[in-house]
Write a structure and sequence with these properties.
about 270 residues, elongated, mainly alpha, about 0% strand
Length: about 270
């Protein structure tokens, strides 16, 4: 491949990347304009495109990052193509770089974490739900009324489970069986026992549910601290690999070179 052809191929690749970047930026600007118009009409934040709206709670405006992700993916593909072209040359080098970029994107897509399930989302909101249930119990509401009020306020998977539990209790379901099904949510066994005991015996549930909510928050804090410690341990290896060459070049290499020069002079 001659120099002129290589320059032309490079210009084509750069032009394609710039066109994709401009396209993504214009698309994001149009989406933001639509969201602003919806906000002005409804007097509430509009959801970003592609995100479903929950009618039980107002949607929130979130800054989109689609154009940045698209430009980043195209930049990776362009860089891989240029590396292949620089190392191998010719159309074969460009093809090898494109194949490498496709392989990298496929591997990233396979390693991408799956979306959290409904049980995981419900478990994350358990401390807040327990606090709200304790507040309702302190105000004199029964387990069914408290579950219905909190379920309508929370929404989402946990709110749906609470609303369904309240409906089953109103229809005459056995409290032990109904709350046992609610306790299938990870971490909700103790909360279900407290509410079931209050519904069966009439015992006050506010204090017990409040204690359970405090325990859930403490458990979440311990889990977060453990994850932070694990991340600190995992990040030490890459940081060490980054600093090791610099340490060898600045601290060890001059000493070795000086000793070798002294031995050679003798």
């Amino acid at each position: 491949m001659t120099g002129a052809v290589r320059i032309a191929a490079l210009l084509i690749l750069v032009t394609a990347l710039c066109a994709q970047a401009v396209r993504e930026v214009l698309r994001e600007r149009r989406a933001r304009g639509v969201r602003r118009r919806v906000e002005s009409l409804l007097a509430m934040p509009a959801p970003p495109p592609g995100k479903p709206v929950d009618a039980r709670k107002p949607p929130s405006l979130e800054a989109g990052g689609g154009w940045a992700a698209g430009v980043r993916h195209w930049a990776v593909a362009l860089a891989a193509a240029l590396v292949g072209w620089a190392l191998l040359g010719g159309i074969g080098g460009l093809g090898a770089g494109a194949l490498a970029a496709c392989g990298a994107r496929w591997r990233r897509a396979r390693r991408r974490p799956a979306a959290p399930s409904g049980g995981e989302v419900a478990a994350r909101h358990l401390p807040l739900a327990a606090d709200l249930l304790a507040a309702c119990a302190s105000a004199g509401a029964g387990p069914a009324e408290a579950a219905e009020a909190v379920g309508r306020s929370l929404g989402g998977p946990l709110g749906e489970r609470l609303t369904r539990t309240a409906a089953e209790l109103r229809l005459g379901g056995e409290p032990a069986e109904v709350w046992r099904r609610f306790g299938a949510i990870p971490g909700a066994e103790g909360l279900a026992r407290c509410m079931e005991r209050a519904g069966s015996s009439g015992a006050p549930a506010a204090e017990a549910v409040a204690r359970h909510a405090a325990g859930l928050r403490a458990g979440r804090a311990r889990t977060a601290a453990a994850r932070a410690r694990r991340a600190q341990v995992l990040i030490s290896a890459p940081v060490g690999l980054c600093f090791l060459p610099a340490f060898l070049a600045v601290g060890v290499a001059p000493v070795v070179i000086g000793l070798a020069a002294g031995l050679m002079d003798r």
